[in-house]
Design a protein that fits this description.
The chain is mostly helical. The chain has helices spanning about 15-30, 35-50, 60-65, 80-95, 125-135, 140-155, 155-160, 190-205, 230-245, 255-265, 270-275, 285-295, 300-305; strands spanning about 170, 175-180, 185-190. The chain folds into two domains: about 15-110, DNA polymerase, domain 1 (Orthogonal Bundle), CATH 1.10.150; about 125-305, Intergrase catalytic core (hpI Integrase, Chain A, Orthogonal Bundle), CATH 1.10.443. The two termini are about 45 Å apart.
Length: about 325
């Protein structure tokens, strides 16, 4: 999205120019290209169907779109209505900041109450089953390394899939740097089993951290070019297949983050420690937590690795 060059001339309406600026800002703040793609599709569908600029849109039209039938012809769930309103409202707030419109038609619409299902993490036994079915092939070894890294670090999908060779630091310990939510950068200890799994996977792909370019992805793919790694969608498809073979219910990649939290709690960590581990809480508190954990040792990955049956040549200090 942000790599594309969009050319405008004097005839291009200001709000259409703002559309691309809004998406670029959204990607920079969220760090999620998937979110940006979803917002882009939703906004283009809405304004394309309306056929008029944002300043002429009424609250009634927004209501009709939010609660209207989707492509399936079914009534949208509360979470879908909320997502539509959140997307439109976020765009209108941006347009108000840019002084393109003066009001937000979404403000007059009451948001539906949602009751999201409680997050579910995999148990240690379920993680062992998942790891067992992954084939001992270059693709399988790469995916296993990704799954282990997600489970042992608790990082978000984009933070791990975007890791590059230069993000692995082996001076003064074993660490990795990552670009977190909102563009924030962090540095954490890289659990030894994850590092060893990464090395095995790279060897299977005839690669080595010692010879790779610093901007080359840690996760090789035969379908990528210029050192780029596996896409989020491809990994998601592989994970779903592994889950099915392991006899586990289908789930998204985010379940591994929930699993990391669950396994930490099972290993004896307090709720506060798990919260710090996941960079949760308010922005102000998260900033404090990041400073506390910056570059520090991770004293619990050994217990989690033992629980899921992962062996390492070295034990945590």
């Amino acid at each position: 999205m942000t790599d594309d060059i969009v050319l405008f001339d004097k005839r291009t309406p200001g709000w259409q120019q703002a559309f691309y600026a809004f998406l670029a800002e959204k990607e920079r703040r969220s760090g999620s290209h998937r979110t940006v793609e979803s917002y882009s599709r939703m906004l283009q569908h809405f304004f394309g169907s309306m056929g008029k600029p944002p300043n002429e849109i009424t609250s009634q039209e927004v209501f009709g779109f939010a609660y209207g039938l989707g492509l399936s012809g079914k009534k949208p769930a509360s979470i879908t209505v909320g997502a539509r309103l959140a997307c439109l409202s976020s765009f209108y707030r941006f347009l108000i900041r840019m002084k393109i419109v003066s009001s937000n038609p979404c403000d007059e619409i009451e948001r539906p109450r949602t009751s999201p299902s409680p997050p579910r993490g995999l148990s240690a036994e379920e993680i062992r089953r998942l790891l067992y079915v992954i084939p001992d092939s270059p693709t399988g070894l790469r995916d296993l390394a990704i799954i282990l890294t997600l489970t042992l670090t608790g990082r978000r999908r984009s933070e791990i899939l975007n890791l590059e060779a230069g993000d692995i630091l082996q001076t003064g310990g074993l660490f990795y740097t990552y670009r977190g939510k909102g563009g924030k950068q962090g540095k954490r200890e890289l659990p030894r089993p994850a590092f060893e799994a990464i090395e095995r996977a790279l060897t299977a792909w005839d690669k080595s951290l010692d010879t790779m370019n610093s901007d080359e992805s840690l996760w090789p793919s035969r379908h990528s070019t210029e050192g780029r790694g596996i896409t989020s969608g491809s990994f998601y498809g592989n994970l779903r297949r592994y889950m099915r073979h392991a006899g586990l219910p289908p789930a998204g990649v985010h379940i591994l983050r929930h699993s990391a939290a669950k396994l930490r709690r099972d290993a004896g960590e307090s709720v506060e420690e798990v919260s710090r581990f996941l960079d949760h809480s308010s922005l102000a508190v998260t900033t404090v937590y990041l400073r506390r954990l910056e570059g520090q040792e991770d004293r619990s990955w050994g217990k989690v690795a033992e629980a899921i049956g992962v062996q390492s040549t070295q034990s945590p200090r």
